């Protein structure tokens, strides 16, 4: 169990660029139902820029990999999700500090700081039908895995599963934040695109760690 190190971070984010490109149409379709239909193209542009940056060189620590990624997303993704995912990764990276490799407990603590940054920036809570509905159960699963002494790959699988369930649970909800909230009750019956992309990104991380 090598933990979460710079190599795993880079492998994750490079694979994420491929996954987001592959799933861009699905993510944009979800956004077309309750938003403006650009979530897939927004993330595709952002993660392509991240992968290009990592191809030039991978920083020495996982924290620096995430901070670089967050910065790229903020500068290249138009739309709400850029600053939100950017803050998530930047705050998670900063919380990892100078560590060469984070164990599950350190990763859970850092990810908690990242999710708190998203909640602070966007003002959303669980149940508002946003990416928080996938991020929050994922971070809880990671913390529980740390307490149970679960190894990294299995802990990340549990986090991805929790995010997938959280994303599914957004379907009946009425959006209270972001563009989808303008639709009021017409936002009910659709999966939130940001929760869906969070589940995708965490599944790619679990696969990279497996
Ligand atoms: P935009 O809505 O600006 O077009 P995107 O389509 O890329 O941006 O992203 C939309 C997603 O961003 C939503 O599905 C939701 O998950 C997330 N989101 C929007 N506003 C907020 C917020 N205030 N807090 C948390 N997440 C949000
Ligand atoms: Mg959109
Ligand atoms: Mg938009």
TrEMBL record:
GO MF annotation: an example: glycerone kinase activity
Keywords: Kinase, Transferase
One GO cellular component, as annotated: cytosol
SMART domains linked: Dak2
Gene3D superfamilies (alphabetical): 1.25.40.340
Entry's Gene Ontology BP terms: glycerol catabolic process
Pfam families: Dak2 (PF02734)
Residue span(s) of domain DhaL: 7-207
Recorded superkingdom: Bacteria
Protein name: Dihydroxyacetone kinase subunit L
Species per Swiss-Prot/TrEMBL record: Actinospica durhamensis
């Amino acid at each position: 169990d090598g933990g979460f190190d710079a190599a795993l971070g880079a492998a994750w984010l490079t694979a994420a660029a491929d996954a987001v490109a592959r799933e861009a149409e699905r993510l944009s379709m979800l956004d077309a139902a309750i938003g403006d239909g650009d979530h897939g193209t927004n993330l595709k542009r952002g993660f392509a820029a991240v992968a290009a940056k990592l191809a030039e060189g991978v920083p020495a620590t996982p924290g620096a990999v995430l901070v670089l990624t967050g910065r790229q997303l903020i500068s290249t993704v138009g739309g709400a999700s850029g600053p939100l995912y950017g803050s998530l990764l930047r705050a998670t990276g900063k919380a990892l500090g100078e560590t060469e490799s984070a164990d599950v407990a350190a990763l859970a603590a850092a990810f908690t700081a990242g999710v708190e940054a998203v909640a602070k920036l966007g003002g959303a809570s669980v149940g508002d039908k946003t990416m928080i509905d996938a991020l929050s159960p994922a971070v809880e699963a990671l913390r529980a895995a740390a307490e149970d002494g679960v190894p990294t790959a299995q802990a990340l699988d549990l986090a991805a599963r929790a995010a997938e369930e959280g994303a599914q649970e957004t379907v009946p909800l009425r959006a209270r934040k972001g563009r989808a909230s303008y639709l009021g009750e017409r936002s009910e019956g659709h999966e939130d695109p940001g929760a869906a992309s969070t589940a995708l990104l965490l599944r790619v991380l679990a696969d990279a760690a497996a």
